[in-house]
Task: structure prediction
Amino acid sequence: MPLVDIRDVRKSYGAVEVLKGVSLDIAQGDVAAIIGRSGSGKSTLLRCINGLETYQSGSICVDGVEVAGEKTNLRELRRNVGMVFQQFNLFPHLTAAQNVTLAPKVVNKTGETQAMDLAKEMLAKVGLSDKAGNYPSQLSGGQQQRVAIARALAMRPKVLLCDEITSALDPELVNEVLRVVERLAKEGITLILVTHEMRFARDVGTKLVFMHAGKAHEEGPPKALFDAPRTPELRQFIGAPA
Amino acid sequence: MTYKLQFGELLPYMGVLFEGLLFTVVLTLISTVAGVGLGIGGAAARTFGPPWAGRVFVIYVELIRNTPFIVQLFFIYFGLPALGLKLSESQAAFLAMTINLGAYSTEIIRAGVEAVPKGHIEAGVSLAMTKWEVFAHIILKQALQKIWPALSSQIIIVMLGSSVVSQISAEDLTYAANFVQSRNFRAFEAYFAVALAYLGLAIVMRAMLRGIGRLMFPGH
Ligand SMILES: Nc1ncnc2c1ncn2[C@@H]1O[C@H](COP(=O)(O)OP(=O)(O)O)[C@@H](O)[C@H]1O
Ligand SMILES: [Mg+2]
Result:
């Protein structure tokens, strides 16, 4: 059974249908890179997976639990689905360590000493052990995004959603974040990444998904797809010769 | 025209004046805590609560912001007994002050809440926090930080406005001044001394509020 099972999901904002029947399987340990033009519904799809958005029809199951199910405990679901945003969204009134431990303390009732260990462990994972006491305003964009990753990981999610997490960064800071993501991928964490970093998608992804016009237009192994796109839309998107 | 200032004539009444000062300080402290608490609740209701709760607070805020404080006070002290609710002067003063500050701080804090980026709410929600947990742990402190200067000013305004409670014979600083000058006929001295006391209170409170702000909001 796939860890994330998306079946024919349709989603409209008012009269505008944004997702027009998306189907997608993501297995445990997959690193799924979602690419596609701006406005093709990539963010909307991610946000449906953790219940930030609702959808009108179809189904999304995470670890066997239907996101929009009537009896679904969204809190339980979101424990299993972490999310990292383009704009970091760190809490400015909390230090890096406090950002990491807030949800474990509030949601999981993790005790103070355990929380401190957790902060250490997670900040080490993203290479920021020395920044535990810094406030977000004292960190570079790349460091802030790494704290945001540590914060999401602190809930020990089964799958981590990343929505263009390097798009708001200065070019010289992109790599430090990508390296962290690559390390997570090697550790076997299931990742779904919306990204414009084609090289990264090709090298680190285990699966490439091309979103186009509200659908998963083409999917497959990244290298194969980049080398030989089957549809003209993907061919055009990656700028491959026809 | 000469008038000989005789502040010495206030000396026998220092005890009365001090008690009035103490009442004003305590009245301000308690109604500040209660009023800001009410404001936090109101802001939460208006931004995160069910629509009916939001509407209740809209009506409350508009009612209070568009009527004079002294009328609110008189309504509570003289009007409510008609409904069977008889309060002492002090109780009425505390209640009126709290309700008044509660309305203004609802508006002020709500503005702060709305200035918190929506992304922080989504980040909190996607970390499996409920919206109330998000409000309490993520939004509230940021909101208070953003509006702390405005809220501080409002608290001072309410402290100064508390002088009105002397009109229902709550024994505050202004009541004490009225009392003193009715006894020794030294109106200038009495009100001058009390004006200085209010000024001193306002300066001290401003400094304290600034200090509290620095303690509560590090790292910005
Ligand atoms: N909250 C919203 N309300 C209305 N339309 C929206 C909303 N969010 C996104 N859209 C629209 O949905 C479409 C897909 O958006 P999005 O999922 O953000 O695309 P992508 O992430 O691929 O750029 C766009 O046309 C966008 O304008
Ligand atoms: Mg997007």
Observations:
- Residues 12-216 of chain B form a domain with the MetI-like fold fold (CATH 1.10.3720.10).
- The radius of gyration of chain B is 21 Å.
